[in-house]
Amino acid sequence: MTITTTAPNGFSFPVTVNSHGWYDLPPFRSGEPYGELRALIPLTPKRTADVLITGNGERIRITADTPFALNASMITVIRSSVRSMLRLDEPMEEFYALCRSEPHLRWVPKRGAGRILRAPTVFEDVVKMLFTTNCSWALTKIQTTHLTRKLGTELSPGVFTFPHPSAIALKSDAWLRRELSCGYRAPYLLKLCRDIDSGRMELESLRSSDAPTDELYARLRSIKGIGHYAAGNILKLLGRYDHLGIDSWVRTRFAELHRNGRPASDAAIERHYDRYGAWRGLVCLMEVTADWHS
DNA sequence: GCGTCCAGGTCTACC
DNA sequence: GGTAGACCTGGACGC
């Protein structure tokens, strides 16, 4: 079945897919030139849609491949999930106006950048962000791949769903450590999943929360294993851009772009972006990833 | 092939 | 409040 939806004026599908590394982590599947994105969208606790998303200007096409008939509510879920993942309903005009006032950021609205790909659920985003901490991208991919292959459901050969927290909560610390290669992150993942499974923790409402960013930041920091970097970047996936989420990549690129290669302290990096106010995290991300889209 | 070193964030204990 | 050290893995490097 094919479902269509419209994107805002100037939207770029490839730039959004390549906004950061998420497209490269399962269940997402994509790659250069980022003209299509495959994703799995949970419809009900037992049913998932495998979708192929393509974008041509302001027209987004979703081809759903399911062994069951899609009813109207499932189609609504698929459409709204794709809109959420591609950030199609986020107001960008204020940010684009800021970019137009800065010569080095004028490329952002011209290329339709600034929308950051996110997973269908906050839980998936948080777990993946935990898997990016203190390790190489190769290890992030290994951990995510093992998690989906060993605890997800196989929809078709080689295509596994992202597991539900309850499936992870049943496992032991030692099992996760051994089978996922996630090392000391295992107890953090286990606690998160058990807290969600028992109802002590709830993440999905964060995307629609009206709470101040500092409150959301504090909630994210209360999750063991989610520190300053991870919380700052999860906030970006929630549509809040006033934290930078500084990591080694940002430090390296900032030094190259603004210090002629000399390292700068995190405090100096923070001060540099202060003038961009609530958009500082997105400005920082645009600067350090600009060459991905050139 | 094996051993060693290093990079990558977060937590905790300690000052 | 700031800091040192531990945590764990994959990859690079030297032998």
The SS-based structural class is alpha+beta
Largest sheet: 4 strands, antiparallel
N to C succession of SSEs: EHEEEHHHHHEEHHHHHHHH
| Helix run count | 14
Q: In angstroms, what separates the terminal alpha carbons? A: 35 Å
CATH superfamily of the largest domain: Hypothetical protein, domain 2
> What is the rounded Rg?
19 Å
- The percentage helix is 40-55%
The amount of beta strand, in percent, is 5-15%
Shape label: globular
- Per CATH, the architecture of the largest domain is Orthogonal Bundle
By oligomeric state, this entry counts as single chain
Architecture overview:
The longest helix is centred in the middle third of the chain and has 15 residues. A 4-stranded antiparallel beta sheet has the order 1-4-3-2. A two-stranded antiparallel sheet has the order 5-6. Strand 3 and strand 4 form a beta hairpin. The chain is an alpha+beta fold and 294 residues long. It has 3 domains: 89 residues, 2-Layer Sandwich (TATA-Binding Protein); 116 residues, Hypothetical protein, domain 2 (Endonuclease III, domain 1), CATH 1.10.340.30; 46 residues, no CATH class. It has 14 helices and 6 strands. The chain is 45% helix and 12% strand. It binds a DNA duplex (15 and 15 nucleotides) through helix 6 and helix 11.
